[in-house]
Amino acid sequence: MSEVKAYGAADPKADLKQINIERREVTPRDVKIKITYCGVCHSDIHTVRNDWGGSKYPVVPGHEIIGKVLEVGSEVSDFKVGDTVGVGCMVDSCRECEPCKHDLEQFCEQGMVGTYNGKDKHLGGHTYGGYSEEIIVDKYYVLSVPENLDENAVAPLLCAGITTFSPLNHWKVGKGDKVGVIGLGGLGHMGIKFAHAMGAHVVMITTSPGKAEDAKRLGADEVLISKDEEAMKKHANSFDFLLNTVPVGHDINPYLSLLKIDATMCMVGAVEPLEPVHGGSLIMGRKNVAGSLIGGIKETQEMLDFCGEHNIVSDIEMIDINTINDAYDRVVNGDVKYRFVIDMESLRN
Amino acid sequence: MSEVKAYGAADPKADLKQINIERREVTPRDVKIKITYCGVCHSDIHTVRNDWGGSKYPVVPGHEIIGKVLEVGSEVSDFKVGDTVGVGCMVDSCRECEPCKHDLEQFCEQGMVGTYNGKDKHLGGHTYGGYSEEIIVDKYYVLSVPENLDENAVAPLLCAGITTFSPLNHWKVGKGDKVGVIGLGGLGHMGIKFAHAMGAHVVMITTSPGKAEDAKRLGADEVLISKDEEAMKKHANSFDFLLNTVPVGHDINPYLSLLKIDATMCMVGAVEPLEPVHGGSLIMGRKNVAGSLIGGIKETQEMLDFCGEHNIVSDIEMIDINTINDAYDRVVNGDVKYRFVIDMESLRN
Questions:
Q1: In this protein, which residues make up the domain named Enoyl reductase (ER) (chains A, B) (predicted)?
Q2: ipTM of the complex
C-alpha cells in the first residue's frame, strides 16, 4: 500500500478538502496511473451529498479519469509506461456472468465495482475515485486514449461520452435518421456531437430558447422548443430515436408523441420517478421507452476510437482542485459549458 | 340503404335496448354479412358509458363479429355467399399512408375507421358495430375464419386475440423464451394460449392466487403471485418478454424488475396514466416498456390461421342479446371466464 493525496468529503454536508488515501500495491494484472485530468460528473455531487442514499465516507469522487501509465504488472501487455490512458465509471466486475461475457459489465450480476464508493476487493472498504494523484486499476478496465485528441477534453468521454454514445450505437442511429436530443447539459452536448457524427439529422429539444445557438454550434440541424405546442405538433410522429438526457423526473408524454411508429425514447439522465406515463402514449404507435446505463468496456473503447476518428471531445472548462466546491454549486445551477475538468496538477502543487 | 335491427345506447347513462339502424347498399368492394355471433369487449362498455369521452350516440357496440356472407359486390373475389367470415375493430383506413402500406392500418395517418363510433365515409355520421343483424364491410377488412374452429368462440379473437397475438408475434416470442402474462382476463387468457402455442415457457403473473388452477389449464407452466415479494425476487431479471394486460393504471416498476437485460414489457390493457415509472427501473438493465394496439389486417388473418393450425379459440360464455346489460355489469366486476359472446339469433327472434 502507498499513501496518496486526494480530495474527499467526510460526510454529506462537508465540503471537499484534501485528505490522504491508500492505494494498493501493483498486482500482476494492474496498471498504475498518474492522474492528469479528472472530469466532474453530476453523479459525483449526488454521491458526495448522499442524494441517492448509501454513500460511504470519505467519498473521493471522480470517474472521468485521464492519466499516464506509471507502472504495469507482469501480466499487462497492452499498456506500457508513459501511455495516455483512461478509466471510467467501473474498475472491476466478475467477468464471468452472462452480462460480463456479453460485454455488458455495467450490468454484472455480482455488481460492477464503481470507480468510487464501490466495494474494494483488494483493500476492503470502498473504492476511491479520480480526485487523486494516482489510481491503480485492473488492466481490463483501462482504456486507450487516441493520440490526436486533447487529453483534458477526453476526460468527460469516460462517463458523459459513453452514456450517450452507447444508446445511439445500440439503437443503430445512422445516416437518414431523425434523432432528437432532449436536454442540453453535460450529456446532451455529447449526444448532439455523436448523433451528428453518426450522420443523423439532429434536433436539439429544449425548454430554453437561449440554448438554440449553442446547440447548432455543437452540430444540431434544428432546435425544437418543447414548450411551443405548435412546433411540437409539427414534429409529431417524426422521430426515429429520442435520447432523453433530462436529469430529473419529468413528463415524458409530450416527447412520446414525437416518436414514429415502433421508435424508441431512451432515458439516460433521470434516475428517479417520472411523472405518470399515459398507457395510450405507448399503445398508439407501438412506441417504446427504454433506459441505458453507461456502456461496457469494449463499447467504451469503441467510443473513444470513434472520437479519435471524428475528432470529438467534450466542451470543457478547466478548474483547479481547490475550486471544486464552487464548481459543484455551478453544476447544480446548470452554469457550465459543458463539463468541468480538474487539472490534477493542482493537487500536487 | 336498408334498415336493420340492432342494440344500442341512447346516452352514457342509458341501458342498451333494441333500436333500428341504417346500413348502406352493397358497393362493388363490399361484403354484406349476416352476423351470427358478436363478442363483448370491455371497450364496448367504455364507449357506451363514454368513459374515454367523445362517444357518439346512439352507440351500437361490437367489434368481435362473426357471420355468414349474404352478398358480395362485383369486385369481391375472395369471399362468396355462405362463407364464414370475421370483422374486427376496424372497417376502413386510407390504405395509402406509410403505416397502411406496411400493414399497420391500426395506425393509419388519416385515422382508422372503428367498427363502431368511427366516421362513416358512406352514410356520414358514425359507424354502427356488431350488436346488429347485419353489417356491410369493405372486402379489405373482412377476414376468413378457419373451418375447424367453433365460430362462436372465434369471435373474441377479432379483438382480444389479435391484441395479444400481435405483440407476442412482433417481439418474436418463441421456443425457449420465458414469457410472463400479467393479468388473467379476456386478454390475459388469450395471451397464455398464444405464448404456450408459440413454444414459450409461460408464467401467469397475477395478484389472485385463486386464478392459478385456471391459468395452468389454459397453458401456463407456472403461476407467479405478484404480491409475493420472495417469489418476485426469485424470478427477478429472468423474463424474455412480458405481456401486460392489466386494464387500469398501476405500478409497473415491480414487473420491470422481472425483465432480463434488453427485454421488453408490452402494455396492451391500460389506456390511462400509469403510476410513476422509476427511471432506474429502465436504466438498470437497458429495459424497455412498449405498447401495442390490436394489429393490422394481414396480421389478424395470420392470427386466425395460427388459431386454426393450433386449435385455439377463446373460452366463452354464450348470452342472448337481451341480457347484455347484466353481462356488462359482470364484465366490469371481472365475473366472466373469459369472454361473453352474444348469439345474434336472439336479436332476430
A1: 14-290
A2: 0.93
